[in-house]
Write a structure and sequence with these properties.
This protein is an all-alpha fold. 63% of the residues lie in helices and 0% in strands. The relative contact order is 0.17.
Length: 255
């Protein structure tokens, strides 16, 4: 929560509705060929989410601590926030990286929803409309990030890097807090997906001459992630950590 408040301050200084993404053609630019290549690489693989479900179903329903419960509720909306910001920024800039990663973030928030169902926790996402949140800190954060990201393409990509960095930090915190095998399995896979998202956003930002200073993870870990290859493979066990850039696929692995 402290990180969200700090981010909001920093940004200030400088019926159930569905969500959908447009399919408008991206404007032709001198970097369009490279962006087309990145777009192809970034397309999420739908079966990733489905393929992990049998592993989750085979894991026991364990007792749930107050911290684990709070973490699931928060991460459900934080993953929705990523989806919603990217959806909105795609509408503004029509860069395929935003629509592609928004689709992956949809699978991320659905993964958390599956755990809420399993543990019979009421879903905080009563209204799935883009930009609507039960958590008011996340509501404010969404508003501020969209305002920042609509200033320029570079700022939009910076927002993408920032969201993924924050997500990596928060997911690692939840992994350190949880001892339930099913929760850790989901978080570890989402963490891998977020590292790949971070790589993609940072790659496009640097292509445009932009730069970024890490705010939520160490510079060493940030550089280790962004300077390593995208993660592929399959993952059905837990046990990673924030600095581990090897290992399994995770949802959104090709983003």
């Amino acid at each position: 929560m402290k990180s969200i408040i700090a981010l909001i301050i920093a940004l200030t200084a400088g019926g159930v509705g569905g969500w959908s993404l447009g399919n408008q053609a991206e404007p032709v630019t001198e970097t369009s060929a490279k962006q087309a290549q990145d777009s192809a690489e970034a397309m999420p693989i739908a079966q990733d989410f489905v393929s992990l479900r049998p592993s989750l179903e085979n894991l026991p329903t364990e007792s749930l601590s107050a911290e684990e419960r709070a973490g699931l509720l928060y991460m459900r909306e934080e993953e929705k926030l990523a989806r919603d910001v990217y959806s909105t920024l795609y509408d503004t800039w029509e860069l395929r990286i935003f629509t592609n990663i928004a689709q992956s973030e949809q699978t991320h928030t659905e993964a958390i929803r599956d755990l809420l169902v399993k543990y019979q926790i009421e879903d905080p996402v009563i209204d799935d409309t883009v930009g609507v949140f039960a958590n008011q800190e996340l509501q404010t954060l969404y508003n501020d990030l969209v305002a920042k990201g609509t200033a320029s393409v570079e700022e939009a990509l910076t927002v993408g890097v920032l969201i993924e960095e924050l997500d990596i930090r928060d997911l690692q915190t939840e992994i350190d807090t949880s001892d339930n095998a099913d929760i850790d399995l989901v978080y570890e896979n989402l963490l891998r997906g977020s590292r790949n998202h971070l790589r993609s956003f940072m790659s496009q930002l640097t292509q445009r001459g932009g730069d970024y200073e890490p705010q939520y993870i160490t510079a060493a870990i940030f550089n280790q992630i962004t300077q390593s290859a995208k993660e592929t493979g399959s993952q059905s066990q837990t046990g990673g950590n924030q600095g581990n850039v090897g290992g399994g696929r995770g949802w959104g692995q090709n983003n």
